[in-house]
Specification:
Blueprint: E1 12-21, E2 25-34, H1 42-51, H2 64-70, E3 79-80, H3 89-95, H4 103-128, H5 134-156, E4 158-161, E5 172-175, H6 176-190, H7 209-227, H8 247-259, E6 284-288, H9 303-306, H10 329-333, E7 345-346, E8 348-349, E9 355-356, E10 364-365, E11 383-386, E12 388-389, E13 391-392, E14 409-410, E15 412-413, E16 425-426, E17 439-440, E18 450-452, E19 470-474, H11 475-488, H12 492-505, H13 525-536, H14 542-548, H15 573-578
Parallel strand pairs: 3-17
Antiparallel strand pairs: 1-2, 4-5, 6-19, 7-11, 8-9, 10-14, 11-18, 12-16, 13-15
Helix pairs in contact: 1-4, 1-5, 4-5, 5-6, 5-7, 6-7, 7-8, 7-11, 8-11, 11-12, 11-13
């Protein structure tokens, strides 16, 4: 029988989508979509393909994020006492013990397959359309198909495809080593028919010419790896697909089209890129639009902020964290000597000038900041990497914050919620009792530096939806890719210049006198890899970077040295059992 993930005419979903109406304006709409059947409304079909970027795929911690980050030195979800055991599926991603029956692997595969099938449906619908936007919609649908396919072949080494205009066409399996060149040609061919961002009512949530440039830079940067991911070394300066220079020349070419575009500029406040109102960030090139879905149960997720906060850390009386994810000591200590880097940490200042220092000196903060929708006080935690003893508000028995007599939010030393005598003291060292297993006892659940890079949206429940758009490509990503391309081409001076533009364009908060980051004087491969982490941590970039820099197979905290086959994830066993079209990846 055919794979259940591509027998799409039998799968019926009720999907919350953004309908592309009129002259490509975006409005909210709910449709019942029969995937794979003829869709009369090409706008709805395309909107469904965009919606799948959310729906957990690129916004939930347990899908693409889990595979791209929990498998690296940047992120780890250990078992903490009675929490986050779940059969070991989360820590397996860091311990490198996943297999073809892994629930996390299967979930990610399924979600990406839905993205592929919804994109194919959108292509089919656009092809049948006679509307004035046919050419644009078709190009966007093909761009989304390329993006979903590229992500799938990067993670799994293969991806399904079927002729979108023939529902009875056989499934084709696109293998990474040959498909990467096909994808590059396909996306390059789409560019004339795509809109420039902010024309034809487009924005960073749409696949525009600029999204295509970013995807092409990414594909060229990783082309050598995709052609033979288990190799001991990679030829990054191979001749490009069209013969016009090398792969790295192409990365530079497409990066230049974005860096030199006046519509984009680096944000001096690095963390604005990850705020709830980041839809107005000048860095956004291609993102998952969540704001339209905030408050619904479709397409939006608060996980990137929620997962790292302790349960006792409460942005509002109705919210809390979950004491789950942290970073590894290896990544934390890579910041040694760089704690003044504006991307490391930023303190919050209230409108009356009060700072939340999170150092034990805070007594109270104003309650004038309110949660939209509830009007309850909003306590703002600091951003970036949080280490050491944590402070914050306390909830009274009546369910409200403890307040001062003049209506301010009291600030307390915090203790973990599940072990009330254990201080919420986030330690860089993890120190598992069994070094090969990421398991903490209830007395150890405070361990691990937490990442508050993404702003917690308190308007929709603990781990509910979020109004923060999730960046897939932003200008900082592009500078980092161009720096690496310069470096691999032997132009160390240009690479260093790009790294320093990122460093010095960011500024600290006023507690640190708004000081900009400090420029480097030299650059080698290890420093470039470190800088990549500083700029792009927790943005689903790290696994690819670790493979390119030869770091992925190395031993680390709760991770043994691993074999190269682990650079590719297995095809879920359920898919292998259901379909003769797929073959299992070597090693599994």
């Amino acid at each position: 029988m055919k794979s259940k993930f591509l027998t799409i005419n039998k799968i019926i979903l009720s999907v919350a989508v953004l309908a592309l109406t009129g002259c490509t304006n975006l409005d909210e709409k709910v449709i019942d979509e029969v995937l794979g059947a003829e869709v009369a409304d090409p706008e709805a079909a395309l909107a469904a393909a965009y919606s799948q970027l959310g729906e957990g795929t690129f916004v939930d911690h347990g899908s693409v994020f889990a595979l791209q980050e929990y498998s690296t030195d940047e992120a780890l979800l250990p078992t903490r006492g009675s929490d986050w055991g779940d059969g070991g599926k989360w820590r397996a991603m860091h311990e490198f013990t996943w297999d073809a029956n892994s629930d996390v692997v299967k979930t990610t595969w399924n979600q990406l397959n839905f993205g592929i099938t919804k994109s194919l449906t959108a292509i089919s619908s656009a092809n049948k359309s006679t509307g004035s936007n046919k050419t644009l919609f078709l190009a966007e649908a093909k761009g989304l198909l390329a993006f979903y396919t590229y992500t799938t072949i990067d993670l799994f080494g293969q991806a399904p495809y079927r002729d979108p205009d023939n529902i009875n066409a056989p499934i084709q399996i696109r293998k990474a080593d040959t498909t990467i060149d096909e994808l590059i040609k396909e996306v390059e061919g789409l560019i004339p028919n795509l809109a420039d961002i902010k024309t034809q009512n487009t924005h960073a949530g749409r696949f525009t010419k600029q999204a295509a440039y970013a995807l092409l830079a990414d594909m060229y940067l990783n082309r050598a790896v995709l052609k033979n991911k288990t190799a001991s070394s990679f030829n990054f300066t191979e001749q490009a697909v069209n013969g016009g220079g090398t792969d790295m020349d192409k990365v530079i070419q497409y990066s230049n089209l974005l860096i030199n575009n006046s519509l984009f500029s680096l944000e001096s406040n690095y963390f604005h890129n990850f705020d709830i109102n980041n839809d107005n960030s000048k860095e956004m090139i291609f993102s998952v639009v969540q704001k339209k879905f905030a408050g619904s149960d479709k397409g939006s997720d608060n996980d990137l902020a929620y997962m790292s906060m302790e349960r006792i850390q409460k942005p509002s009386p109705d919210n809390r964290g979950t004491n789950a994810s942290c970073i590894t000591p290896e990544f934390y200590y890579s910041w040694n000597g760089n704690h003044d880097d504006p991307r490391f940490q930023r303190s919050y200042q209230y409108e009356d000038g009060t700072w939340f220092r999170n150092d034990g000196t805070d007594v109270s903060v104003p309650s004038t900041s309110k949660v939209e929708g509830t009007g309850k006080p909003w306590f703002h935690f600091n951003r970036g990497l949080q280490v050491g003893q944590q402070y914050g508000p306390k909830i009274l028995s009546n369910g409200n914050f403890d307040m001062t007599s003049d209506g301010r939010i009291k600030v307390y030393k915090l203790f973990t919620e599940k072990n009330t005598t254990l201080a919420a003291d986030f330690t860089p060292e993890l120190n598992f009792d069994n070094p090969s297993e990421a398991v903490f006892t209830q007395a150890q659940i405070n361990r691990g530096v937490r990442n508050f890079k993404f702003e917690f949206d308190p308007g929709y429940g603990n781990n509910g939806t979020s109004g923060m758009d999730v960046p897939l490509y932003r200008l900082g990503t592009i500078y980092m890719m161009r720096a690496e391309a310069y470096f691999r081409s032997g132009n160390i001076t240009a690479a260093l210049a790009d790294v320093n533009i990122l460093r010095t364009s960011r500024t600290n908060d006023a507690l640190k006198n708004n000081a900009p980051g400090i420029a480097l004087t030299t650059l080698d491969a290890n420093t470039l890899f470190r800088e990549s982490g500083f700029e792009l941590y927790w943005e689903m970039y790290r696994r690819k970077a670790m493979i390119r820099f030869g770091k992925f197979d190395l031993a680390g905290t709760a991770k043994p040295a691993s074999q190269p086959y682990r650079r590719i994830f297995p095809i879920p066993q359920a898919t292998i059992d259901a379909s003769k079209d797929f073959t299992q990846n070597p090693g599994y």
